[in-house]
Design goal:
33% of the residues lie in helices and 18% in strands. By secondary structure, the chain is α+β, with helices and mostly antiparallel strands.
Length: 311
């Protein structure tokens, strides 16, 4: 992290902050360069204000102690799809577990998206278009070799897709649980940009904070480099003020799902409203990042989170 930050400071010649101050912030708060310079603008903040934020790296230390048997339920995409089948409406298959004939029939008759089983943050995901089917054996061999999960593409509802039709635009809902209760702690809307087929913020997408009481987007769009967008740069749809459809139902479904594994303290649910009007999960994350929750409004949540979990 220090080497990365040193190079960026030298390349960008920032007018704010200093490498010395960043080293101090890294030592005490474990903030990345992006969090220090762009997402939270730590160089602007007093020490008391900095104490309100929890960094991705600090959360990583907290998540480290979560038992493997719990993490596995989220990391293993097939196990997740089976465990949360009540909230899954699409068809899917694991390439290495099916014959070439089954694979061919599946991808030729459905619009599909391919996800490496070990992928995260949207890395390695690609859509299978008709042109990809020109050499099905080569595609099958690639998917088997890379242990790829093939899923039927979810078609999102028009209201959410209007921001960026090329990607499936989703809602991240973060729940906090103990053995007695679960609450919705925070949420944000995620949108793809440009030619991307994924909406993940760490893969170049946009995100905006959702008011968990009303379902209204209460911030501008933002990317992980700190750029802000009043409207989506591709569709020119205004972001702030949009109200997420069926918000109370979405929250209720996420609370219901969180009770399946109540011993997982913090879960990030990636949720869509599909074209049939069903509330469907894309995936769940046993250890969601909080930078996307804190950076749109630049409001830290550490003290609020401490009311529910022991950091």
């Amino acid at each position: 992290l220090l080497q990365e930050a040193r190079v960026k400071f030298e390349e960008e010649h920032p007018t704010h902050g200093s490498f010395k101050d960043y080293k101090l912030a890294l030592k005490k708060h474990f903030v990345s360069y992006s969090e220090y310079m762009h997402q939270y603008e730590f160089w602007r903040l007093t020490e008391a204000e900095r104490n309100q934020f929890i960094s991705r790296n600090a959360l990583g230390l907290f998540y480290y102690d979560i038992p493997w048997k719990i993490k596995q339920k989220f990391w293993d995409k097939v196990e997740f799809l089976n465990l949360f089948s009540l909230f899954i409406y699409r068809e899917w298959l694991c390439a290495r577990h099916v014959s070439f004939e089954v694979f061919s029939s599946f991808v030729l008759n459905k619009e599909c998206i391919a996800k490496p089983m070990d992928s995260c943050c949207g890395a390695g995901i690609f859509k299978i278009f008709s042109k990809d089917c020109a050499d099905l054996r080569q595609l099958y061999a690639r998917c088997v070799k890379n242990d790829v999960l093939i899923e039927e593409c979810i078609v999102g509802c028009g209201e959410l897709q209007s921001f960026h039709p090329r990607s499936l635009n989703s809602i991240r809902v973060v729940t906090v649980s103990d053995n007695s209760q679960s609450i919705v702690f925070g949420a944000f809307f995620r949108m793809g940009m440009g030619d991307s087929v994924v909406d993940n913020a760490h893969a170049g997408g946009l995100f905006a904070q959702i008011n968990i009481e009303t379902g209204e987007i209460e911030s501008e769009g933002i990317d992980t480099n700190g750029h802000r967008y009043v409207e989506h740069p591709d569709s020119h749809r205004r972001i702030k003020g949009f109200i997420i459809p069926r918000w109370e139902e979405i929250k209720s479904v996420c609370i219901q799902a969180s009770r399946v594994i109540p011993e997982n303290p913090i879960t990030g649910w990636d949720v869509v409203i599909n074209s049939c009007g069903q509330i469907e999960f894309i995936e769940g994350n046993h250890g969601p990042d909080f930078d996307l929750m804190q950076s749109p409004l630049k409001v830290g949540v550490k003290e609020r989170l401490r009311k529910y979990v022991r950091l």
